[in-house]
Structure formats: C-alpha cells, structure tokens
Amino acid sequence: MELSEKLVVGFLLAFMVGCTVSPNNGKTSAVGNPPPAACASAIRIEAALTRMRQLGEMRKGKDLIDQFKNEDIAAWPPAFAAKASEACNLRGQAYVFEKDNERAEKDFNLALELSPSGYAWYTLGEFYQSMKDDQRAINAYTKAFEMAPEPGTGKSDGWIPLRATLNAASILLGQTRYQEALEILARYGESDIRKMPPVWAIRILRIYGRIYSSMGREEAALVNFKAALELEKKQEAEWKTPPSDPLPTPLGPWTFRADQTNQGVVENWFAANANTTDWVPIKVPAFWANTGAVGDYQGYAWYCTTFTAPAAWKGRTIRLLFSAVDEEAWVYVNGKLIREHSARSEGRPIAELWEEAFTADIPPDDLNYGQANALVVRVNNTVAGGGIWRPVLGCAVDNE
C-alpha cells in the first residue's frame, strides 16, 4: 500500500467515530454528527494537508507541486481556513524551491487572505527578502511581530517574532539605516534578552554588536560581542559538565532504524509499545555514517532506548540534555512528543542546528518512576554524517 493510501485509510478510521451516517437527508443529526458529505470533505482535506507536510519535510517540492498544483485550496470550507492557509504556505514554499516565484507569491498572499497569522506574514517576509524586495520584507516582518499574542514581547509566538525582528534589523543594517535597526531591536529589552533561550539571545547581542560597530560605537559593540561570547561558552560548558542528580545509568544501549520513505510517524514508530525487534544496535554518540548501522545516508532515521527514573524522584521533572544532533530532532518519551528541535520549531536554517545543544524536559505526569521509560528520537539529516553525535545526559530537576 502506498504511503498516501495509508494516510487516507488512517483518516477514514479516525473519522468513523465522529462521522456516522444518519437517515437525516444530509443534515446534522440530533446528536451532532456532521453529514456524510462534510465528513468526506474533512477526510480529504486532512489527508491532503498531511501529505503536503510530509513532502515539504522531505524537501520534495516538485512532487508536492505535481500532486497539488490543481488543488483549489481557496474552496476549502471556512472551518478549515487555518489548514488552508498552511497548505498555501507549503505549496508556496515548494514553488520557491522550483524557482516559480510568481506562483509562490500568489500562494503566500492567498495564505494571508484565508487565515492571517504571524507565520503567514513571516513566510511572506522571507520570500520578499529572498527577492531583494527589502521594504516589503520589512513590512511583512513587522506584521509578523505585531500578530504575536503578547505585542512587545513575542513570547507567546515562540520564534516567529524573534526571527522577524532579527531579519528586519539585518536588512536595515545592510541599508545603513542603523537607527531604525536599533528601534526594531528595542522591542526586546534587556530583561527580555536575559529570559530568552541562549541561542536567540546570542543572535540579538551579535546584531547589536554589528550595528554599533558600523556606527563607530566600538565600546558598545564590544560589550555586546563579549556578552554573546560568554553565553556561547556557557552553552558549551553545559553539555561538557556532568549534571547534578544524574540518571543512575548512562542512556543506552541504543537501537536504530532508517526511515527512507518517512513513514515512521504515520506508523507510530515512536509508540511506547512499538515493535523494535528489527532495529539494529548503534553506537551513541557518533555520526551514523561512522557506525556501520546505515552508512552514508541522508534522510530520516529513528533511535530508541530506555531509562529508569528512580522511584524516590517521583514528582520531579527529568531533563534530557542533547549535546548535539545532526541535524533535526524530535524527542518522544513513552509515546508522547516532548521536544522538537527543527528548522520549523527554531525558526532557523537547518544548517545551524547540527552542533547545537538543546534540552527536553519530561513532566512528572509523563514518567514511569521506578520503571522503564521509552525514549525515541526521530532525526532528519540532509548532508554528511547525521545522527546523535554528542552525548545525551539526563538528570532530575525541581519543578518551578
């Protein structure tokens, strides 16, 4: 069975519970079940969007266009406006990959018409920036920031307003519009920068340094460059220093399975009770290309191991520190996704992620204290070695 067929079958099963057929001439039943036509539309839309996401993740822009270029996304029912907007963005990105900028721009703007969002504005800003249309890019990035649920902080929308601010400031710096760049960066005060994940704080401090240096304010530039360097050293020290209250045994041994067709998510390879008997042993930390498990391979793959949290730690959070995964990672514990470290989640190019440490906190409600816990990591690599190539540490932390 082809992957797309599996998706449709999966959605058919999922909707069977809520989409029962009633003798009501196509109207909503007394118990609230939608008419069969509505269910069929929902199934088709969900299947189409899931397929588009998968093709986008696999960077198969041509395949996405071939399959969905004639899809009338604007005709999707209003109840699916947000999904239609996402679908337009995905198809627009595919057109960008295929260098069809006219159709890309049309889809990005349609995404905004269907369901305005910070992400839709940000994507349009990236498109205009790639086209060297700087002013329209700045305008779109400004809209992306303004649509954050907490204007002035950007905390609720994660990376979108942060990345929009950095990109707009970078454009203005390149145009020597230094004061305007500083005004955009001023959206985040000193206290906001201190609370940010280090990777974002470092980027903001660096661009402050570049702006001040270009303005001839060398002392101010040096202060910001030094602060960025100190944060970088602190990050590196975190993964090199054994944590307090560590897990009683090193994480491992690990097993491994390549996922050439990117079907692992659909087939629930992350499930706590997933059958891993045909997975192969693999050394961690190491690039998978150097282990003999798969060789020189680019694509998706999965790692699996178990760990035990002592019963005495009941009620405490377990923090996993991934010193580096090449390149993107999705971390599952007992079948639940607890952390994503990808270009999409971090709002940065995939090439910037491969040597970056990140943490994954497992809430007490998701842990089996005194028993084995299943840890599964999905990895995507687009170039060179790939895999969990620096140590994975675990420790208990007190809940805040």
The CATH topology of the largest domain turns out to be Jelly Rolls
- Quick one: biggest sheet? 6 strands, antiparallel
Structural class: alpha+beta
User: How many domains make up the 3D coordinates?
Assistant: 3
Q: What gap, in angstroms, lies between the N and C termini? A: 48 Å
The averaged pLDDT comes out at 84
Strand order of the largest sheet: 2-1-3-9-6-7
Task: Describe the protein's architecture and organization.
With 400 residues, the chain is of the alpha+beta class. It folds into three domains: 1-115, no CATH class; 147-241, Alpha Horseshoe (Serine Threonine Protein Phosphatase 5, Tetratricopeptide repeat), CATH 1.25.40; 254-397, Galactose-binding domain-like (Jelly Rolls), CATH 2.60.120. The protein is built from 13 helices and eleven strands. It has a six-stranded antiparallel β-sheet. A three-stranded antiparallel β-sheet has the order 8-4-11, with no helix packed on it. α4 (81-97) runs antiparallel to α5 (101-114). It is globular, with a radius of gyration of 23 Å.
Blueprint of the fold:
Layout: H1 3-16, H2 36-57, H3 61-68, H4 81-97, H5 101-114, H6 118-130, H7 134-146, H8 159-174, H9 178-185, H10 190-195, H11 198-214, H12 218-240, E1 254-259, E2 280-282, E3 299-308, E4 317-322, E5 325-326, E6 328-333, E7 336-341, H13 343-346, E8 358-362, E9 372-381, E10 387-388, E11 392-397
Antiparallel strand pairs: 1-2, 1-3, 3-9, 4-8, 4-11, 5-10, 6-7, 6-9
